[in-house]
């Protein structure tokens, strides 16, 4: 089953989706309008690039310290959270054990994220990755 | 909740506190871990930055969409290849990914952050 559908089958998951490159190409399911899903994708892409940049800095201080490459992030709100691994995201309610369950599924299904984040993100929408980026 | 209690979380490698400018104030590192004070100091600064960005995003999201539930922000987590750091305004804990329980960690650091806030106020 596709990761997004699998996430949406869990009670308490509000919306889930995936984004590519600049965050303006995305697909999703759940209780978001298309415009809100576009904003969510851009927010997630922005945070993903941010933590990836930070992991590069940590690695320059302490090589192989265990952080790089960044796999994702969680934004924990008062009643809801955003979970992100690679280019997949989920908006979830703060129900008991839901965060752990969603993160377990995301880590297991998306797998380890490689070193070159931008290439990975861009490759999701096809095209000549090297020509487009370099 | 203090750093020694945070170190009781499953897979905890290090726990640390910091000022609202990101300066490291206290830390505990598990023996044998490769986490250094320099990494923690850098991490503390990124924690402050990430909490500020996440708060901006939460506030902006709620204002633009009318969807409530993010504020007040409870915390943020960065997930690396081997470990994750779970953080709030003034303290953070690093845990091995294979053992991490994110919910317990967020609850624990919220208690730690509240204690730090009260100490700061005193």
Name the strands of the widest sheet of chain B in spatial order: 2-1-5-4-3
Rg of chain A:
15 Å
Compute the separation of the termini of chain B in Å. 17 Å
The total beta strand count of chain A reads 5
Shape of chain A: globular
Oligomer: heterodimer
Looking at the overall shape, the CATH architecture of chain A is 2-Layer Sandwich
**Which band does the percent of strand residues of chain A land in?**
15-25%
Low-confidence stretches of chain A: none
**Number of DSSP-assigned strands of chain B:** 5
The helix count of chain A comes to 5
Just give the CATH class of chain A.
Alpha Beta
Strand order of the largest sheet of chain A: 2-1-5-4-3
How much of the sequence lies in strands of chain B comes to 15-25%
CATH superfamily of chain B: Dynein light chain 2a, cytoplasmic
Rounded to the nearest angstrom, the radius of gyration of chain B is: 14 Å
What's the gist of this structure?
The complex is a heterodimer of chains A (134) and B (122). Chain A has 134 residues and is an alpha+beta fold.
């Amino acid at each position: 089953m596709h990761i997004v559908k699998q996430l949406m089958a869990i009670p308490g998951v509000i919306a889930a989706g995936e984004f590519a490159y600049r965050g303006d190409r995305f697909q999703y399911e759940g209780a978001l309008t298309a415009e809100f899903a576009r904003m969510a994708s851009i927010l997630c892409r922005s945070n993903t690039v941010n933590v990836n940049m930070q992991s590069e800095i940590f690695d320059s201080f302490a090589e192989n310290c265990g952080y790089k490459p960044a796999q994702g992030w969680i934004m924990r709100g008062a009643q809801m959270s955003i979970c992100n691994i690679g280019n997949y995201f989920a908006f979830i309610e703060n129900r008991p054990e839901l965060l752990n369950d969603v993160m377990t599924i995301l880590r297991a299904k998306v797998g380890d994220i490689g070193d070159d984040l931008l290439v990975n993100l861009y490759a999701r929408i096809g095209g000549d990755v090297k020509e487009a980026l370099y | 909740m203090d750093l020694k209690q945070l170190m009781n979380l499953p897979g905890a490698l290090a726990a640390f506190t910091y000022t609202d400018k990101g300066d490291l104030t206290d830390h505990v590192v598990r023996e044998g871990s490769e986490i250094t004070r320099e990494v923690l100091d850098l991490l503390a600064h990124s924690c402050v930055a990430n909490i500020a960005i996440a708060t901006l995003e939460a506030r902006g999201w709620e204002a633009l969409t009318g969807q409530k539930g993010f504020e007040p922000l409870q915390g943020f987590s960065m997930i690396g290849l081997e470990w994750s750091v779970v953080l709030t305004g003034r303290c953070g804990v690093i845990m091995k990914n294979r053992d991490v329980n994110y919910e317990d960690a967020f609850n624990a650091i919220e208690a730690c952050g509240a204690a730090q806030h009260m100490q700061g106020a005193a």
